[in-house]
């Protein structure tokens, strides 16, 4: 019995050490996978964001866009930004033409909807794209340009087209279609786009010199 007791203790010790090592290796593998996955997700989202920028400011239409020189803007809670955020400028013939602004709709059906709104500097919309959302497949995801043409309804719009009361879905007396079985998602997007127009109108006086300085700096760097 005296010989068996040390042997049993030794076996238990080996088992515990083995379990600890297994747990450490597993935890390390999981952590490494998370890091690599996070980097891949971040890279993929950056690529997707760049594609959206070039969709809204297509080179074949004469737009020049340097995504490595963003325009840093002050916090705009109405756009979903509680701290300074990056926007982009697009140029035609070396003149700033478009301001591409990230906008967050906080009131989607399943959470916030991230948008990119391209505004001509005279205040009308060049286009809108959805950067990220978690809306219901087959219903709310029709805000994606790949799923329907609905998002193109914003092209050429401004705060006078439609009138203020028209900036909602038709179910509520507005000019924008809702989706069958899904009203909350398109309504959230329409409201967010309207807020971006109001934000630009109210801040245009302060934005104009900043845009001009950024444009001059960008040209000097070329």
TrEMBL record:
FMN-binding domain sequence ranges: 108-200
GO BP, sorted A to Z: electron transport chain
EC number, UniProt record: 7.-.-.-
Protein name: Ion-translocating oxidoreductase complex subunit G
Function: Part of a membrane-bound complex that couples electron transfer with translocation of ions across the membrane.
Sorted UniProt keywords: Cell inner membrane, Cell membrane, Electron transport, Flavoprotein, FMN, Membrane, Phosphoprotein, Translocase, Transmembrane, Transmembrane helix, Transport
Protein species of origin: Marinospirillum celere
MF (Gene Ontology): electron transfer activity; FMN binding
Family stated for the protein in its record: Belongs to the RnfG family.
